[in-house]
Amino acid sequence: MSKKRGKKYLDAIKDYQKDKFYEPEEVLDLVKKFHWTNFEESIDIAIKLGIDTRRSEEQVRGAVDLPHGTGKKVKVVVFAEGEKAKE
Fold first, then answer.
1. Which DSSP string do the residues of the chain spell out, in sequence order?
2. What's the rounded Cα separation, in Å, for the pair 36 and 51?
3. Family, per the entry (predicted)?
């Protein structure tokens, strides 16, 4: 018995070419087009950098902005006099 696919799935993947190499930007656009479910999907990406982390000049550094922050509330206290207190 062959495995059947739904209409939404078949409509979503009609632009996908299995033998073509896609750039990362193209892949993200295609994944957004391939939406056929009724819930919000997520994407996991694994990238092999091919570096030796034991060598200091090959370390990877970066920063990430989380969509909802870290959950911590920021409190700011200012002690000032004169013109600075009005700011």
1. -PPP--HHHHHHTTT--TTS---HHHHHHHHHHT--SSS-------------TTSGGG--------TT--SPPP-------THHHH-
2. 37
3. Belongs to the universal ribosomal protein uL1 family.
